[in-house]
DNA sequence: AATGAATGAGATTTCATTCAT
DNA sequence: CATGAATGAAATCTCATTCAT
């Protein structure tokens, strides 16, 4: 008796056990990334994602029991990537100039073009549960706060909090400016603006 | 995304002739705004929009032959609103302080909460044709450029172009910061940052 | 964005407005009756039911937004039929012999062969919500109680209650005995047994 | 009801060789009993049954190559149980009063609550092949006939045949009356009714 | 012109069964 | 043997759009 759509309120991805399975999951995730990035969450279909990965639809559902679970897994993967980048910035925070530090921060979101577009799409999709969306946002903000604290330990918690919000939004703008004409100059100006403000803060 | 039976490649909104019709169109647009803002473009259904406006579904299709045409009309309406605001800024550009000017610009997107959320949703929706999305974006950029030129006529066309891109993205960030904790302080910092940069440019 | 299976917890059948619609609903209900009776609730598919009625699947869902709603409508229709029969018995309860009265009661379920098989199938189906099932059962019991009270007003409420339970189960057995070899003699015996007991009670 | 990949028209349960296997089969059967009783044949899934028995799905298919075969095995087991009870009644048929005899017969189906609910579910399921269903029914009828013959050897074969049909249906009613309000009085009345009829027959 | 019932392609999800490991 | 990941046919339900009334 098919029909009961996933009754579990929060279904999560199942981990593969065999080595072939792990490879297959990799393919499925990549297929999902490009499909979501291209079509958006709602317009992308599970059937198309499976087809893109040359996998039968049943396999897709073996690992991701729900379209939502698939989105969640993707966001988690991207979250891990961002955290790693931010951790790296923490490590070198005191060994670089302010300009370099600004650059590192502002470029956090600029790697992995497709994954980022996918993540941004999912973050905007009203159909994706707010939980996962909030998780990624918070993770990005706290990671940025960590980097700022590593660079400017003299700032209070509140100041760090607010600065992190500012910087995160500056990061996002960097990405969006790529679609405009002459993105190089636009980003250079943006960089200057943020560096100026950061310099004023940190002192 | 069910079957699109419409084969017309580009359907646009039809203008109503009588005053009763104009009132009805108004209601339909408003219903569409809230529905799109709440559910997103894909999840919102034409039936629900008509119901929200207490209008029969046939009426909705009378004026907006396509879901896409409806989105387009909404974006056009919002575009007009933004242009008006930017025009007003042009007029007073030379009579205000730099801080006030910055404030005016950064707050351009902060009015009409629901309409803005609707517009941003539609701008992200991959299902809405890129044309209308590009139109609104360009309109916002050129309007901003006009305001900047009114304030700083000494800048070259290129410089204005780039500055407009920067400012537009700064405007967007103002909106996004509203969802974070302590948006007041975040926005104040942001304002300071942009004012600093604007001051450096304009001279 | 299809996918959200009927989120309304209890969807009910929608009434048709046009005359063609009423005819169509009739056809759909009849198709559903035979299909459920033949295949059972779970094995019967909405697609097959629509096809049997030569109706597009969309039309089926127009009137019965859920497979469950369809079952409910069927049970309600059968309920109405049974109530009518029991009311008729009430009217003639005092004008017939005990044997005739027994006969009338025991034969209540023996008309409308297919509808009855459909109803019994639905009553057993674990997938049909208990509510509708209980409704029909109670309706049958209270209708029978009414008939018994009309015949034997001297009995207490409790006695009527219990007698109704007994008689209802006797009715059901009448139906089941139809599948055995020599159903005529079996039913005659059954009739004698119940009549004997009824005679002993009523006095 | 998803695709039945099994092309074997009639698959039956395989007997286990080792004692550990016999234990496992026992667990699987018990898990199947409760699952079928709770969810019905169609809604119960092989995966869930295996999980309930804490057995891998492969093991389940080792012993019962088909969902149908599993149902068949369950019905056979229940058949054996009923036959044993009826045999016991045969043995004591001449040593008890008519009231006791009636009681014994009417209570045949009242033991093993879950197994019985499972069996009744399977008997109603249109998806279970008619063969096994008929087998159990016939077995119950012939067993009952045996008991009646042991008690009343003077009756002709035809009379026994018909009486068995009547008694079997009386048994079933006893079970169904358990769900109504005041089942004790209902059953007492039922008992009186059947005893009265049996007395009239046997003489 | 106005209405809203009718349509059907297509989306998500399930699960009996197999077979590689 | 034992296991449980893999498969894909098939089921339920949605909704943009049309067109008869």
Which short descriptors sum up this protein?
disordered N terminus, transcription cis-regulatory region binding (chains A, B, C, D), DNA-binding (chains A, B, C, D), mainly alpha, elongated, DNA-binding, homotetramer, HTH-type_TetR-like_transc_reg (chains A, B, C, D), Homeodomain-like_sf (chains A, B, C, D), Tetracycline Repressor, domain 2, 203 residues
Chain-wise SSE layout:
The structure is a homotetramer of 203-residue chains.
Chain A: H1 19-39, H2 46-52, H3 57-63, H4 67-92, H5 98-106, H6 113-124, H7 130-151, H8 157-176, H9 183-202
Helix pairs in contact in A: 1-2, 1-6, 4-6, 4-7, 5-9, 7-8, 8-9
Chain A binds a DNA duplex (21 and 21 nucleotides) through helix 1 and helix 3.
């Amino acid at each position: 008796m098919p029909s009961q759509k996933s009754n579990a309120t929060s279904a999560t991805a199942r981990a593969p056990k065999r080595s072939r399975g792990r490879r297959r999951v990799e393919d499925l995730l990549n297929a999902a990334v490009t499909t979501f990035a291209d079509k958006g969450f709602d317009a992308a279909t599970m059937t198309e994602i499976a087809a893109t990965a040359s996998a039968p639809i049943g396999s897709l559902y073996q690992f991701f029991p729900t379209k939502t679970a698939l989105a969640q897994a993707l966001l988690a993967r991207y979250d891990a990537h961002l955290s790693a980048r931010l951790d790296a910035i923490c490590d070198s925070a005191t060994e670089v100039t302010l300009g370099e530090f600004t650059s590192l921060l502002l470029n956090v979101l600029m790697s992995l073009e497709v994954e980022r577009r996918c993540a941004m799409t999912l973050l905007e999709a009203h159909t994706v549960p707010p939980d996962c969306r909030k998780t990624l946002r918070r993770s990005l903000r706290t990671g940025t706060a960590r980097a700022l604290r590593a660079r400017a330990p003299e700032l209070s918690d509140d100041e760090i909090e607010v600065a992190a919000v500012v910087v995160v939004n500056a990061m996002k703008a960097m990405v969006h400016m790529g679609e405009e004409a002459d993105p190089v100059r636009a980003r250079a100006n943006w960089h200057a603006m943020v560096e100026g403000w950061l310099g004023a803060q940190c002192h």
